């Protein structure tokens, strides 16, 4: 299982990453803009340094109007650490060409902005490491995002491919459990969804009960002394 925190807000990294359940961090130009982080190679290197001090992988997106531009930016971002930086590339015609060029240069790849299970065939046949379907945004566009993600997992399994289906654009924590039952094991989600994973009042009640019992038994022990 691999969980990623989907934000460029480093105050959220400080709060959530020490909990230890995240394999890495994911960002894209939209998330960088939302966090007032410049989308530049220099800034991505500084974010990568911080993310990799707290997790195992930093996944960030290249940009450019042509495959050559996407390739150039992707190479520059990943040169800092080819083992731990994964470059996201939109699964467009130009993006896929850039991803192939990057892959041949030893760069780890995540095809992203996936809205259709048939795109899993592209990822599986290229042998890229990840493909990221946007579950919530598929639902926003009248598709059944859950079903498309399950179909993608079936496709890569059927191909005998090692490509991981990195489910993105998740809007609630319960959907992770439902997808995990269907065999999906790789997710990226917002801090809000991450907090939702801890939202279980019965667990909080049980923890409080343990604390009360511990306090009572240590008070009794002190009284006996
Ligand atoms: C992934 O790269 C995107 O940042 C994200 O999953 C999109 O989520 P949203 O549709 O909730 O904005």
UniProtKB/TrEMBL annotation:
Keywords: Schiff base, Signal
Keyword Translocase: no
Top-level division of the source organism's lineage: Eukaryota
Name of protein: Transaldolase
UniProt lineage: Eukaryota, Sar, Stramenopiles, Ochrophyta, Bacillariophyta
């Amino acid at each position: 299982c691999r969980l990623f925190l989907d934000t460029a807000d480093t105050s959220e990294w400080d709060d959530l990453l020490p909990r230890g359940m995240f394999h890495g961090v994911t960002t894209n130009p939209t998330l960088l803009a939302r966090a007032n982080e410049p989308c530049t190679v220099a800034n991505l290197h500084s974010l990568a340094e911080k993310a990799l001090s707290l997790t195992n992988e930093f996944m960030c997106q290249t940009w450019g109007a042509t495959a050559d531009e996407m390739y150039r930016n992707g190479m520059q971002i990943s040169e800092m650490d080819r083992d731990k930086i994964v470059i996201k590339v939109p699964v467009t015609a130009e993006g896929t060409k850039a991803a192939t060029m990057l892959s041949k240069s030893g760069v780890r790849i995540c095809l992203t902005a996936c809205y259709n299970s048939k795109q899993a065939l592209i990822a599986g046949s290229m042998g890229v490491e990840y493909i990221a379907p946007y579950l919530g945004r598929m639902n926003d566009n009248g598709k059944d995002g859950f079903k498309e993600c399950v179909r993608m997992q079936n496709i890569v399994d059927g191909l005998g491919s090692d490509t991981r289906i990195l489910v993105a654009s998740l809007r609630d924590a319960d959907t992770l459990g439902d997808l995990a039952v269907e065999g999906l094991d790789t997710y990226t989600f917002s801090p809000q969804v991450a907090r939702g994973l801890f939202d279980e009042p019965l667990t909080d009640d049980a923890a409080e009960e343990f604390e009360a019992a511990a306090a009572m038994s240590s008070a009794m022990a002190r009284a006996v002394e």
